[in-house]
Amino acid sequence: LSSLLFFYLPDNLREGAEQKVVFITGRVHPGETPSSFVCQGIIDFLISQHPIARVLREHLVFKIAPMLNPDGVYLGNYRCSLMGFDLNRHWLDPSPWAHPTLYGVKQLIIQMYNDPKTSLEFYIDIHAHSTMMNGFMYGNVFEDEERFQRQAIFPKLLCQNAEDFSYSSTSFNRDAVKAGTGRRFLGGLLDHTSSCYTLEVSFYSYISGGTTAAVPYTEEAYMKLGRNVARTFLDYYRLDPMVEKMAIPMPRLRKERPPPYKYPLRRGPASSYPISKGDTKSSVNHKDPSNSF
């Protein structure tokens, strides 16, 4: 068994290696609780041993700030921070004193942008919407037609993976009112290789394709959307062939001889009871990344 244990560090995390970075933020508006569950789904999937998650960790670096407004969340505010600021309107010039979380994240993003060995490929800010149904995205408008069309690829792929994501509700705009948002500011700061989105998810329900009935969102449904967001990066970077290589089973260990008696006894006061079939662990199907872990 000891021969199977070794230290492994993915190539993209080794010192000096070129990195493709996906940066995800959430809960900049405290009252938008669904964003936390979507973000939790992304995190749980990425740190799992699912073959797709292992491939994504091998090829991409994910940096996630799951709660940009912790003081507002603690106080139970709906939209603002402790000092009364809507942090998603202060990306242009955040103050280290008044908007410390925003300031820190922005400095980190600028640092990565200036690093020649780092390519910040995606920025996704997760929100919740109070009037629209389903999940959908806001993207940016660019004069460069090729860059503008490339912005549509990820939402289209996500629509194929998530039954509750609506591409028809996804829109691309350059609204002056949103100039101070993360999506708008970073879309103007980063170069043509980067894609910046706001991911919105309904507070209450979604309508899946081919039906007209609204399905109420649950915590699990929000987390499932998060898992499907993570899965979509596999399709975007065309990493599907790598999954089978990652899924090669580990060699089986030598089985020990069964005990000479039918029911091994347990120590303690319950030792007179046999181990039932229900005590065995059931296997989990990892083929579909939308399954819970």
UniProtKB/TrEMBL annotation:
Q: For this UniProt record, give its keywords in alphabetical order, as a comma-separated list.
A: Carboxypeptidase, Hydrolase, Protease
Q: Which residues form the Peptidase M14 domain?
A: 1-237
Its required cofactor(s), as named, are: Zn(2+)
Q: Which residues form the active site?
A: 200
Question: What organism, scientifically named, is this protein from?
Answer: Myotis brandtii
Instruction: Enumerate the InterPro entries for this protein.
Output: Cytosolic_carboxypeptidase, Peptidase_M14
Q: So which domain of life are we looking at? A: Eukaryota
Does Oxidoreductase show up as a keyword for this record? no
Output the Gene Ontology terms for molecular function: metallocarboxypeptidase activity; zinc ion binding
Q: Which GO terms describe its biological process?
A: proteolysis
Record has Hydrolase as a keyword: yes
Protein name as annotated: Cytosolic carboxypeptidase 6
CDD domains this protein is in? Answer: M14_AGBL4_like
Chain positions covered by the region annotation Disordered: 255-293
Family per UniProt? Belongs to the peptidase M14 family.
Pfam families the UniProt entry points to: Peptidase_M14 (PF00246)
